[in-house]
Amino acid sequence: MSTERIAEIRRDTNETKIRVKVNLDGSGRASLATGIGFFDHMLDQIARHGLIDLEIEAQGDLHIDGHHTVEDVGITLGQAVAAAVGDKKGITRYGHSYVPLDEALSRVVVDFSGRPGLAMDVKFTSGMIGGFDTQLAYEFFQGFVNHAGVSLHIDNLKGHNAHHQCETIFKAFGRAIRMALTPDPRSAGVVPSTKGSL
Hints:
The chain is an alpha+beta fold.
């Protein structure tokens, strides 16, 4: 793939103002400012383990809670990834990863199918991790899936510490995305689908 896979998206609503820039062929550098420390830590996992250069600036109504900010970052990141991927010619398309962290283990599988779908089975052992409501992990991935046009399966297979559970999910997501978006030299210039489009 000779063209740069870079995109920048801005999304402004009455609830949030968000800017996301991605370079899918980066080195894992991240500049993150969402106002939610643990969420920034998780986004950093996506960049580092996905080898995606990622810039995210978010101003949201955190005086209410983190819901709008986290969900809208997922939406905007999904839009940016979709724009950067383009017509999907030559990508591997599917990606998967198992990631452990001490007692926790998670599996993430992704398909850049063009059809949004999320199946997430995670039973967090705590409702909050720092200032991050664990319910919002689902909202983040749902926003991403809907706007990136991917099928995404997330399973936390084991874990007792909610921080570890969440971190394994985001790390595995980064690794799965990296695998799916890696160019396949045997399929250069070809859309990986019998339909001819994704």
